[in-house]
């Protein structure tokens, strides 16, 4: 696997749209690295510059210590997987997976061996002769993955690869992809707009906003110690505390439910959204804006219901950004 370095990379479209604005990233060899942010923040453009589909206006891209900024796509030795799969519809699973090896003039017995190994890796053995149209969405995504991995690239680039899958399958593929990435040791750059997905899968995350990187960190750092309001707000639920000058942010699960008397905030439960194992309560304080409180419970339901008077408590050290 190879390290990737983006050094002050900038890309504008039509001389106006600043898609990527002086982005600098250091991605370690063998790392599962996610670009996370809302639609239009520059994730895909960043990934396409690593792949070579876009050339930066300024800045340099390094892979494995080499400056590859001016290298064409086919000389970059990277695997790519898209949300749309982009499989060849009239070719079989085996032919789809063999494609990259054929392009590289690999000998036939070697192709057969490696296609079989790649299909085994993504648990598709036995489906070699099917066409993409005869596969489920999850299976098609696995074919796309096998096709990217069969050439054993040191770098794998994935642009919202699980976006078209339903929730259950998506979760299963999250586990599988992460496990596969670790097993192969490939450097994986993963684009997603889904916070939970990025938190669950990544070694590190770069949170992007308006073409810039707001923060780079481990999932825990990003979630527990967001450095900007944008990051705090984008990742999970957050309460904004206006008390005492500088506004700060507090996660719903950092708040404890206590007796109303003498509590830091006293109020009434407005709504209680049962989430299975936890409940998200919205509390309307006597004064000020509503606050979200997450109560985890081992039993069937939360300890409070709409209409209940409650007090809220938290530690100052848990309020961030
Ligand atoms: P993301 O993947 O985070 O949704 P993109 O990288 O696709 O964001 O896009 C970033 C910005 O650049 C958006 O404003 C988008 O409209 C614009 N953009 C992307 N590709 C092109 C293009 N080929 N021509 C013009 N504008 C583009
Ligand atoms: Mg995109």
From TrEMBL:
<keyword id="KW-0547">Nucleotide-binding</keyword>
<protein>
    <submittedName>
        <fullName>ABC transporter ATP-binding protein</fullName>
    </submittedName>
</protein>
<dbReference type="Pfam" id="PF08402">
    <property type="entry name" value="TOBE_2"/>
</dbReference>
<keyword id="KW-0813">Transport</keyword>
<keyword id="KW-0067">ATP-binding</keyword>
<dbReference type="InterPro" id="IPR017871">
    <property type="entry name" value="ABC_transporter-like_CS"/>
</dbReference>
<dbReference type="GO" id="GO:0005524">
    <property type="term" value="F:ATP binding"/>
</dbReference>
<feature type="domain" description="ABC transporter">
    <location>
        <begin position="4"/>
        <end position="235"/>
    </location>
</feature>
<dbReference type="InterPro" id="IPR050093">
    <property type="entry name" value="ABC_SmlMolc_Importer"/>
</dbReference>
<comment type="similarity">
    <text>Belongs to the ABC transporter superfamily.</text>
</comment>
<dbReference type="InterPro" id="IPR003593">
    <property type="entry name" value="AAA+_ATPase"/>
</dbReference>
<dbReference type="InterPro" id="IPR003439">
    <property type="entry name" value="ABC_transporter-like_ATP-bd"/>
</dbReference>
<dbReference type="InterPro" id="IPR013611">
    <property type="entry name" value="Transp-assoc_OB_typ2"/>
</dbReference>
<dbReference type="Pfam" id="PF00005">
    <property type="entry name" value="ABC_tran"/>
</dbReference>
